[in-house]
Protein: Glycosyltransferase 8 domain-containing protein 2
Organism: Channa argus
Amino acid sequence: MALLRKINRVLLVLLVLMLCLLLHSTFLRASTQPTPSGQRKTPGRTAEIPAASETDNLIPVIICASEERVGATMATINSINSNTDASVFFYIVTLRDAVRLIRPYIEKTSLKDIKYKILEFNPMVLRGKVKPDSSRPDLLHPLNFVRFYLPMLGINHKKVIYLDDDVIVQGDIKDLFNVKLKPGHAAAFASDCDLPSTHEVVGSVGMQTTYMGFLDYRKEEVRELGINPRDCSFNPGVFVADVGEWKRQKITKQLENWMEENFRQNIYSSAMAGGVATPPMLIVFHDKYTALEPLWHVRHLGWSPDAHYPESFLQDARLLHWNGPFKPWNYPAVHLDLWERWFIPDPSGKFSLVRPDSKN
């Protein structure tokens, strides 16, 4: 009997020790978690992801910020914030190394009052889906594929706006957000054939506006799609997405399937227009998207340093997109003044403009 009591006391002590270790481990994990990305310091304001019940009056904008182009992202955000009285919530998606640059860029500049959240994208989801390609390495940056994974960002919105970092918004972003998507459509894009005013410019620089420029029709897998090579393409750098419809149609999985198919069969490459991020979107959304009003995506400004649009036309544009290799923060590029008016200097000095008199 005495031996049994002794054993029970030992077991009790072991149980207490295990409980203490468990509590200590739980506390340690909680205390060493990083501060949520984008945590605001302004009293009374929050940058936590809004709950579903709080999202009805917000306009969610998803935009990426790579370490080498963080100043471009801030210019886009500034242009949006300066041209609307709507309540905009910015989801800034980046890789881990850039988080330390983004927060002070916002907190120490005129952007300090915006509502935002920094989300880290895990590039490991692209393993086995993207091949290295040296012709346009910038197009293979992991953040180029964030647009494929919108429902996986953990945000609570029925509809979102996705923007590339090389755009400037001159109109009121709420007008873009209020576009009504047709039943069964998961996204709204601007067709490459919808803007006659740009056709002469686009043709002069050899920019592709049809599926022929993005898919390799010599491949049987492409021909079996039944897509006319002369069908108008669209640019996926600016779009409005119905997140619920995106989930129902399993758009992310469809996009991943085409990425994996290209990884195996090389049915398109970054040597073609749009790199490897555009073709899956063109395939999955062919004849299944709502058309945006053309002035909400005036593009190809970065395709050539010699392609100039009429100034009156650019003033009427709601959104300008410097897609192509000639970015407005570098040199040469066109219509630099329209981009620079929204540029905010980097308080850390790490991001700077490249100009003819620059030593950088």
